[in-house]
Design a protein that fits this description.
- The structure is a single chain.
- The chain is 2% helix and 35% strand.
- By secondary structure, it is mainly β.
- The strands form four sheets. The chain has a four-stranded antiparallel sheet, with no helix packed on it.
- Strand 14 and strand 15 form a beta hairpin.
- The chain is elongated and about 60 Å long.
Length: 203
Amino acid sequence: GNHSLAVDMYGYVYAWGGNNSGKCGNGKYADLQVPDIVLDDDPNTTGVYLGDEAFIVQAEAGQQMSLARSNNGYVWHWGSGSTTGNYPEKVRKSSNGEPLTNIIDIACCTCGAAVDGDGHVWQWSYSNAAALVPGGQTGTEYLGNIVEIGSGQSRFIARTDDGRVLMWDITSSYPVYVPAGQMDTESGYLENISGNTLFTVSC
């Protein structure tokens, strides 16, 4: 995207750059030349920020949307895909409308994704309706044992707790293991991908 996000040590989110979809979360649509503090999720309040509502520990800037994760596992999004546009709102499950909880990692580009503490992955596009990602090639009902997620142009990549990597796109929602390529493995897929560095998987 053409905007940036930063989280300070106090859990507040700052945004600047392109803001045509409201992805800077300041209640406006004009581009920002300097950082502005992201507002809370109530358009009726004044001078109240997302960092007042929750302690934010992670923020992700996508093409036309933004995500933020709090230290207690909730996720907010704003810009394209949210019902509030230029204000944050909690991401909710498509099944029952309840907010996503116990989230440990988030990613976005054109779509949003989140990993929960049980290792399941939730994804959503231009709506506030997150759904569990099927197991695909893993053979399970839903994708599991995931510890890290990355997002690109309508596609996702995820790392498992045993160091394998899966990829899928938003339209098929069928995760497949990434082939080994030049890595020599018995399985024929990437293995032993470590989580010791920031952004181990990205797309």
